[in-house]
Amino acid sequence: MTRKNTVETVMKYVLLVSALTSITIVLMIGIFTLKEGMPAFREIGLGDLLTRTTWRPGQEQYGILAMIVGSGLVTVGAVVLGVPLALGSAIFLAEIAPQKIKAFVKPSIELLAGIPSVVYGLFGMVVLVPLVRKIPAPGNSGYGLLAASVVLAIMILPTIASVSENAIRNVPRSFREGSLAMGATRWETIRKVVLPSARSGILSAVVLGLGRALGETIAMIMVIGNSVVMPSATGGNPLTIFLSRARTLTGNIAVEIAYATGIHANALFATGVVLFVLIMLVNSSARFLISNRSYK
Amino acid sequence: MGYRLALTALMVLAAGGLQAASAEDINIAGSTTVQPLAELFGEAFEANHDGVRIIVQGGGSSVGVRSAANGTADIGNASREVKDSEMADHPELVVHTVARDGIAIVTHPDVPVDGLTLEEARAIFAGRITSWSELGGPDRMITVIAREEGSGTRAAFEDMVMDEELICASAMLLPSNGAVRTAVSTTPDCIGFISFGYLDDQVKAIAIDGVEATVENASNGTYPVVRPLNMITDGEPTGMVAEFLEFALSADGQAIVTDEGYIAVR
Questions:
Q1: Inter-chain residue contact A256 with B66, CB threshold 8 Å
Q2: Cα(B106)–Cα(B145) distance, rounded to whole angstroms?
């Protein structure tokens, strides 16, 4: 065998082992979380765990529905606020911005991804919470879903913006030229030709952002209030639901694990399993969307 | 995030296991409120006992009781009384109270209420009183802040103030004394509770039944919300562990307690 071939073979196995290592780690974490959560599923029951809204470990009551709703609502809030902003920046960067402006704007957006989440949390506590508190509504302390959604919207913006920008950039030049040649304006071209062609790429960008939003922990703990209550609207306005305090699934684990023992600790691992499954669902739908795109 | 924490916990446990090798080690684990005090006792004790190492870990009061009972630590720390259920499971546990700590009820500095009765405080934290107007203040809703489930400070507060009632579910929950102090000091109409060690002029400490929340009132027994800081051993301590506990209760040990803002027991 020549030396070249030996190197080829060795490298092939080195790379294989690297790939297997990550799979093994993911599997081990999955199995470990599931194993630790199992006693909770057995004693509390999957149904009760998922459908009860009372979480009082002191009274042996473990229901995480309020937290599933909390995580869901804050994610929806972040997407509603963050996606238009991210999409706007992506279109601007890919289609409109002159090179000079782009050289400044693109790194700025990417910089957002590099800020540690605890700094976002601090920003939320010091700047956003007092602003939200100005909204006149009974019981509004500033801490809650609205402040958390705004913080999260900023946090998922760079992911969504950069992935959608790539998707938009990948739309063949000929599509745009064809549209412009037919007499369409630049905006009409963007809206009716470019965006629909990049649709699945943009959608997967949003789903990636969703996954990031579901997993965020420390920034949420700092601004969302952490009360285990079903978020509810006050008065007649349904939007005031975003002023109520809530707790996220991630926050539940992080806030309580330090002191938890016995079935309480198992229930927190069970919360982790539920979160794991939710994020896996979100990620595999992202994969599905991306593979659909390459098929086209 | 769950698995990240779990991995960290594993690493901490592994590190603890490695450290436990030497024969002259005293392993201490438990309450994060007692932890800084135990560390200071340890430093002073090591200084005049050659070859002895005091290893202090956190984990919370429940972990403290459990690790004393199952022998993973020589001393378990708890910032609350040992529960009856824990005593029933492990009747051989011996509790050594090395210091005491007051829990202050604090409000935002602009709240015009300066004193509450214990019953009023209970009603606020249970969610039965929801507006400051019921207590002679303005007609504004009270924002209640408490600690997370499992916290020793919360358990002690429930024991001494709540009297079987539950802290209302709508209470905002924060994971440390410092976080509660920050939130109370920045949120109008807010009420919470923190350890005496964390009191400063950012927040207003409320008098309970007319007694100001001061170390003096706590040590002379007039301030009602005082909890023991306990070191727990499995059976009567012997050898180095006994000497260490003697030191904690000695004049030098109790001087450390007073310096740290806690209440001496001797």
A1: no
A2: 10
Measured CB to CB, residues of chain B less than 8 Å from chain A are: 1-3, 5-7, 9, 32, 58-63, 66, 141, 143, 148-152, 158, 166, 169-175, 182-183, 186-190
Give B122 to chain A, closest Cα distance, Å.
Answer: 18
Q: Would you say B57 and B36 are in contact if contact means Cβ atoms under 8 Å apart?
A: no
Chain B contact set for A121 (CB, 8 A) = none
CA–CA dist B111, B123 (Å, integer): 17
Interface confidence, given as ipTM, is 0.78
Question: Where do we find the tokens 């071209």?
Answer: A189
pLDDT tens column, A84-107: 999 999 999 999 999 999 999 999
Q: Which two tokens stand for residue A123?
A: 């920003």
**3-state SS class at A61:** strand
pTM of the full structure: 0.81
Query: Which residue from A minimizes the CA distance to B175?
Result: A255
CA distance B110 to chain A (A): 15
CB B103 within 8 A of CB B225: yes
What per-residue string of b and e applies to A93-104 under the rule 16 or more CB within 10 Å gives b? Answer: bbbebeeeeeee
Q: Which residues of B touch A272 (CB under 8 A)?
A: 1-3
A245 contacts B1? CB cut-off 8 A: no
User: Mind listing the pLDDT tens digit of every residue in chain B (266 residues)?
Assistant: 445 555 555 555 554 444 444 457 999 998 888 888 999 999 999 998 888 999 998 888 888 998 999 899 999 999 888 888 889 999 999 999 999 999 999 999 999 999 999 999 999 999 999 999 999 889 999 999 999 887 888 989 998 999 889 999 889 998 888 889 999 999 999 999 998 888 889 999 999 999 999 988 998 889 999 999 999 999 999 999 999 999 999 999 999 998 888 899 98
Contact A226 B148 (CB under 8 A): yes
Residues of B within 8 A of A32 (CB-CB) are 3, 6
Q: Cβ contacts (< 8 Å) between B68 and chain A: which residues?
A: none
**Stretch (H or E) spanning A62:** strand A61-62
Name the residue in chain B with its Cα closest to that of A222.
Answer: B174
Q: Which of B76, B62, B23 minimizes the C-alpha distance to B154?
A: B62
| Matching residue, tokens 């079903």 | A230
Considering only alpha carbons, which residue of chain B is nearest residue A136? B140
* Interface mutation vs chain A, best among B62, B149, B168, B185, most A CBs within 10 Å: B149
Q: Could you write out the three-class secondary structure of chain B?
A: CHHHHHHHHHHHHHHHHHHCCCCCEEEEEECCCCHHHHHHHHHHHHHCCCCCEEEEEEECHHHHHHHHHCCCCCEEEECCCCCHHHHHHCCCEEEEEEEEEEEEEEECCCCCCCEECHHHHHHHHHCCCCEHHHHCCCCCECEEEEECCCCHHHHHHHHHHHCCCCCCCCCEEECCHHHHHHHHHHCCCEEEEEEHHHCCCCCEECEECCECCCHHHHHCCCCCCEEEEEEEEECCCCHHHHHHHHHHHCHHHHHHHHHCCCECCC
